[in-house]
Amino acid sequence: MTHSIPGLEVIRSESRGYFNHGWLKTYHSFSFANYYHAQRMHFGALRVINDDVIAPGRGFGLHPHDNMEIITIPIQGSLMHEDSMGHREVIRPNDVQVMSAGSGLFHAEFNASESEEVALFQIWMLPDRKNVEPVYNQANFNPEQAMGQWQQLVGPKGGDSVLTIHQQAWVKRAFVKAGDTIALSPITPQQGHYVMVVSGDVEIMNHNLHPRDALAMTGQHGQVRALRDAHLIDLIVPMQW
């Protein structure tokens, strides 16, 4: 498979698919459910970035997944996870959850609070192998280790990451103070960066990006300069696999 976003593209927050279901407000960076965009089917192995806000006490009931690497990153509040493997866990900001759906599983996700919204990113990666045994894992990450530098949250199976997936892909985050600069990780011509601005304003490759804007580029890397204190997520993915 090949990528569906060429070279370099800025994806503005307001250009994403948006749905307000009452209990769920969600933005889709790629075609998903009732949102279809022919040029945004995936970016290499990156298939989904959903930016969700779930109302207190509400959530997604038990539903199936298979052959997908699912990464959940809470930004605010607390999320209850239950699955057919027997896990029942709550994840909060600075936690990251990884689930290799593999040969198939069922899970449910609910806002664990009756009074506060939960906001999260859910990221799906297409796996580099099919029908593996399903796996669940989560870890807590110290935000101090992301100050002014990239903190690795997820990496390939067999690598040095605490959380791993069945794909040659990495998920990193950084908190960058206004006026400071950090470099994007070097990549090969066969890899791509998908950088999401969670909050703040930055400049990358002469493009100004604002909250929830993203920049997708293949085979190149550059500098990130924070115009305002910024929180960034960088997804490094293979463009062919």
Automatic annotation (TrEMBL):
Residues 18-125 form the Pirin N-terminal domain. Gene3D superfamilies: Jelly Rolls (2.60.120.10). GO terms for molecular function: metal ion binding. Its cofactor is Fe cation. Residues 153-232 form the Quercetin 2,3-dioxygenase C-terminal cupin domain. Transmembrane segments: none annotated. InterPro entries: Pirin (IPR012093), Pirin_N_dom (IPR003829), Quercetinase_C (IPR041602), RmlC-like_jellyroll (IPR014710), RmlC_Cupin_sf (IPR011051). It comes from the Bacteria. Fe cation binds at residues 63, 65, 107, 109. The keyword Iron applies. Keywords: Iron, Metal-binding. Binds 1 Fe cation per subunit. SUPFAM superfamilies: RmlC-like cupins. Belongs to the pirin family. PANTHER family: QUERCETIN 2,3-DIOXYGENASE. This is Pirin N-terminal domain-containing protein.
